Amino acid sequence: MKPRFEPGFSDLAAALRTAQHVCVLTGAGISAESGVPTFRDAQQGLWAKYDPHQLATPEAFEEDPELLWRWYRWRRDLVAKADPNPGHLALAKLAELVPRLTLVTQNVDGLHQRAGSHGVIEFHGNLFDDRCHAEGCVIVHDQRAEVPVCPNCGAHLRPGVVWFGEAIAETALNESFAAAADCSVFLSVGTSSLVYPAAGLVDIARENGAIVAEINPNPTLNSGNYDFAIAANAGVALPELVESLLN
Ligand code: BV8
Q1: 89 CA distance to ligand 1 centroid (A)?
Q2: Ligand 1 within 6 A of 196 CB?
Q3: What residue ranges do the domains of the chain occupy?
Q4: pLDDT of 48 higher than 80
Q5: Which CATH number is associated with domain 37-81+125-161?
Q6: Alpha carbon distance 29, 187 (integer Å)
Q7: CATH fold of 8-34+83-124+168-246
Q8: What is the pLDDT of residue 223?
Q9: Model confidence at 122: pLDDT above 60
Q10: Angstrom distance (rounded) from CA 14 to CA 243
Q11: Per-residue pLDDT tens for 217-241?
Q12: Which helix or strand (DSSP H or E) is residue 204 part of?
């Protein structure tokens, strides 16, 4: 069966067949087919009036921690009911087919891990961790309070995600930059390429000679910077890409 999504699909498959190290960056779009709304999608229900870019900030949390906890608990419930989709599963399979694969995700939903991917670099943290807002340490607890507090210092606990204006964890930053610089194929999947420094990884990869490709049903700000921009849903294109490597 001739693969769809040409031009680009066959070239990307050929590049993956000889790649020694593949670096994949995913964004909210890869979880869209699992029913998890992307940041660009309008927020749902009572959250429709809020802009996530305004909510996902330390200022919003410090102003109204109760509101933030209600938002994150709503998102946790939504993600807990979601399942990995064929796009997540295909990336877990791709890791078995290439000598080395580094998966960097901007997503905080943990769906890559549930799909079987290992060593996932969670560039923006994880929705299900609770961290002390003052000390930064992850705290495991069974508090039922609307705004749980740190047992060490009494500060508010907050979800273990990176908010706008907060620094990416040093390890995640360094490992992602190193993988982008070392890889021979860089594949961006389901991201609008608007959020930095994640959106800058493709530049590092390209400057170091990697073949760079994008899978997104819509054009993005970075589309012109890719060797191949494949206009497709991740849950369709990624399984077909893996299928083409198996045949
Ligand atoms: C920082 C966790 C510095 C929270 C998130 C230049 C350099 C450095 C920083 C900046 C810079 N310019 C601006 C900044 C500041 C800022 C930033 O980038 N702002 C943007 C809005 C301009 N960056 C930061 O603040 C970062 N921190 O730089 O710190 C620093 C240094 C030292 C000391 C102090 C500070 C931190 C950014 C992290 C923010 N946190 N998430 C939470 O989730 O609650 S980011 C958040 O946005 C999510 O992680 C999400 O992933 C991301 C949105 O991006 P996408 O993933 O791309 O999702 P989006 O909805 O936008 O797009 C979805 C795409 O999917 C679309 O293109 C769509 O077409 C596509 N799609 C849809 N369906 C499908 C599909 N694709 C495939 N298949 C489908 N089926």
Answers
A1: 23
A2: yes
A3: 8-34+83-124+168-246, 37-81+125-161
A4: no
A5: 3.30.1600.10
A6: 14
A7: Rossmann fold (3.40.50)
A8: 86
A9: yes
A10: 13
A11: 999 988 888 999 999 999 999 999 9
A12: helix 201-207
